[in-house]
Amino acid sequence: MMSYLTSRIRKIRYITSVVSVALMVISLAAFAIRGLNMGLDFTGGMVTEMRISPTVTSHQLLEVLKPALGDSTTVTTSGADGRWVIRYALPEQGAEAGLTVPDVEQLLHQVSDKVDIISNSMVGSQVGQDLVEQGGFALLVCVLCILGYLCFRFEWRLASGALLALIHDVVLVLGFFALTQMEFNLTVFAAVLAILGYSLNDSIIIADRIREMLVAKQQTPTPDINDQAVIATFSRTMVTSGTTLITVAALWLMGGTPLEGFATAMFIGIISGTWSSISIGTVLPEWLKLEPKHYLPAEVDSAP
Q1: pLDDT digits (tens, 9 = 90+) for 149-194
Q2: Is the dihedral of CA 62, 67, 68, 73 positive or negative?
Q3: In terms of DSSP bridges, do strands 116-123 and 37-38 run parallel, antiparallel, or are they unpaired?
Q4: 275 contacts: CB under 8 Å, gap ≥ 6
Q5: Smallest Cα–Cα separation from 263: which of 179, 176, 203, 140?
Q6: If residue 49 lies in a helix (H) or strand (E), which one and from where to where?
Q7: Which of 12, 150, 225, 281 is surrounded by the most beta carbons within 10 Å?
Q8: In which element (H, E) is residue 171 found?
Q9: How far apart are CA 138 and CA 144, in angstroms?
Q10: Could you give the C-alpha distances from 3 to 9, 115, 189, in angstroms and in order?
């Protein structure tokens, strides 16, 4: 029974590793060709807070605002009933060319007789560029710290599998947002950083078990060790992923538009993080010829 189960697990690991590589290629191609649809946090734009009739819904607001302000326009509640925050992009080269920004108050009078503009502010393009640079730097620091931790914790063959699994998860999320052209804003970027930590946790759990079994079962081939490690950690992985997905689904269904991108990115990251730690995290060390001798003490390894 155990031999049948391990053979099935091995087949699944190999198939999913091929699927993962194919998805990475597609995601990288989509990212290179279409790029990301950057949100106002990165590109700059206008933020207007206003108060209107409490009976007006976000759907009614978007029907009126999007034709004049663009498809990137978003509306979110601001605490009290009837109080909303509108975010929209400025016309291209609007500030330099002197183009007139659409009158939001006049547009809102189409759905409400009483419109009170509380505040109106602009996010400059320079601020957006600074956020892009700071976000990229934060991602780089995060990856370098993870790389240093993996090099310290595991032998490089095992660490490389965990590292490639991390890259795989981030690439898939970015590829999805490039393909669908969903808005990529600061909340989505925060989800990408959270995915790095989540995927790392999954990979470390399996890598730890592989390391333990390599030392305990020195005569067992590495593919068999990897199959047994996946079986031993499978229930824990499924419980962890399942409970996390329930939380993300709640955010997705009840968080509304502001959390839609975050929940979407997390949902994809959790699913891909679970299978990449099983497929890439175990298959790559096999290809790199990971063996029990790499975790034996020096004196044991040199003994006749």
Answers
A1: 777 777 788 888 888 888 888 899 999 999 988 888 888 888 888 8
A2: positive
A3: unpaired
A4: 16, 20
A5: 176
A6: strand 45-51
A7: 281
A8: helix 156-180
A9: 10
A10: 10, 71, 43
- Whether the CA torsion 66, 71, 73, 74 is positive or negative: it is positive
3-class SS of residue 40: helix
Take residue 185 and report the two structure tokens written for it: 């804003």
Helices (H), 70-124: 94-97, 104-108
Average pLDDT, the chain: 79
Q: Which two tokens stand for residue 304?
A: 């006749």
Distance CA 110, CA 240 (A): 49
SS3 content of the chain, % helix, strand, coil (to 5): 70, 10, 20
* DSSP per residue, 78-100: -SSTTEEEEEEPPPTTHHHHTPP
The β-bridge partners of 38 are 184
- Reported as type and span, the H/E element at residue 118 is strand 116-123
Number of residues written out for the chain: 304
Lookup: tokens for 191: 């989800």
* Phi, psi of 207, deg, nearest 5: -65, -40
Q: What is the pTM of this model?
A: 0.75
Place of tokens 């933020």: 47
3-state secondary structure at position 111: coil
Q: Is 75 helix (H, G, I), strand (E, B) or coil?
A: strand
Tokens (6 digits) for 7: 């053979």
Q: Mean pLDDT in runs of 10 for the chain (304 residues)?
A: 64 84 92 82 77 83 83 74 79 49 77 81 65 76 79 80 87 91 83 83 82 80 81 81 86 77 89 85 82 60 44
Alpha-carbon span 276 to 301, nearest angstrom: 31
How far is 155 from 151, CA to CA, in rounded Å?
A: 7
- Look at the block and give the residue holding tokens 């995601």: 27
